Amino acid sequence: MKFLLLFFIFMVLLWQWRHAREEKVKHAMRKNAAPAAVVDMVQCAHCGLHLPAGDAVHQAKATYCSAAHALAQEHG
Ligand SMILES: [Zn+2]
Fold first, then answer.
1. How far does residue 63's CA lie from ligand 1's centre (Å)?
2. Tens digit of pLDDT for each residue in 2-43?
């Protein structure tokens, strides 16, 4: 009976240790993911749409959401 009690305590401690470790890993992952989630946003000079800088059309004077809007803005 004493052995069973010790075994039970051991299992609880093991569970708590694993739980604490998982929380730590989750926390570290969230910390690492944060900078990657921040994307440089730019605004289309024609329609005002916000989009990631990587997807934007960059012209000498301004940034646009598409080639069509770049053309539309520069040719009236
Ligand atoms: Zn646009």
1. 9
2. 888 999 999 999 999 999 988 888 888 777 665 656 789 999
Q: What tokens were used for 21?
A: 């470790």
Give, as residue ranges, everything with CB less than 5 Å from ion ligand 1.
44, 46-47, 49, 65, 69
Q: Where are the domains of the chain?
A: 1-37, 39-76
Cα-to-centroid distance, 61 and ligand 1 (Å):
14
